[in-house]
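name: query_chain
kind: protein
chains: 1
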Amino acid sequence: MGLLGLGRIGRAVAGAAPALGIDCRSALVREPAKHPSSSIRLETDGLRVIDSGIDVLVEVLGGIEPARSLVRAALARGIPVVTANKSLMAAHGVELRAAADRAGVPLLYEAAVLSGVPFVGALARRPLLASATMIAGILNGTSHFITTAIERGATFGEALADAKARGYAEPDSRADTSGCDAAEKLTILLHLCGAGAVTPSEICRRGIESLAPADFAAARRLAGSIKPVAYASLEPGAYGSWAGPAFVAADHPFAHFSGVTNVLELSNATGEPVLFAGPGAGPAVTAATIIDDVREAQGAKGDRGSRGVKGAGAIGAIGAERADGARFDSPPASRWFLRIAAGEITEAHLAEFLAAHGPAAVRIERVVGGLAVLTVRAPWAAVQAAARTLEQLGAVVTLLPVIDPSTRSGQAPSTRSGQAGAR
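structure:
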């Protein structure tokens, strides 16, 4: 095995490999002097690692370049590649899977999305699953840990500091807290489900930095919680995406997970949703999945068209016509959660306002500092317009999509989560 990168994840991979009979021959590093105790041959030129007689290349550099060029070089030489680089696969996954297909060698990336939950192979083996019309998940363990802590009373700053102290967050954690990391992972999932032209910049994204305990208290009053959710609709004529905080109804499976857990649900019209869940943060979790991919790459090398070439060819073709020309730069129509900080607005006045300006409220509750609302299903543009009008009247509005069982099918929700009308 050759390693591109010897940071926290690279060191975890190198440490786990010998016990499984894998020899880490060489590693690409920027400054060899920072690794004085390493027993691995260190290189500052990635091509020297690739050309050192390795059987499998593991890329854990992160970022786009030089990762993309080095992965392409390895594939061109017929060397299987394992990567945990979500940024690379989100930006160039379609291109790299095609290169792997041409070379007849595996390109494996289970650790790039939900690192502790091996599911990409399931998409390769089950085309019907890859034709999902709704993708939804808690895809970032760091932001899930932070929102869980805020729900329990911590401020955002306190929760972030705790995540860093536990090793769940990097010193620069903006990719996690801004929704960028989740948007990249959602892009990879969309590629696997046939929307190969989507880029991370198209995903509608919102960070968790502005969330406060009051938002979570308002959600609890409406029988729900707030989770960092990435989801996308692939329903014809109803495309859309979101990566950011969302109101999760108590009767949705996501409401029962906490901490750093990742969870993914794939739904279509042919049967019950399929759920994957597991740990989502930490070098050891990622390294274990990478090592599994290394062993699989050894067995799949040279087997063109096998499940070893995950995501190349067959998966990319699933649903391609369905997603042709689709736009994912706004959330699909859904129910909406609003927390409105404006003490002078009464429940009756707000119900009247929303009935006139849309979307109508199905439940309004008085909470500390204002009102909390659940609306009927409505387009993003309509609820944004209503929120802007409220803000012009002096209110401070938190606006989040609602994830409940109806999200899976786009059907109107039941009234189990609340009595219609203002209360």
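note: The domain at 2-124+283-317 is CATH 3.40.50.720 (Rossmann fold).
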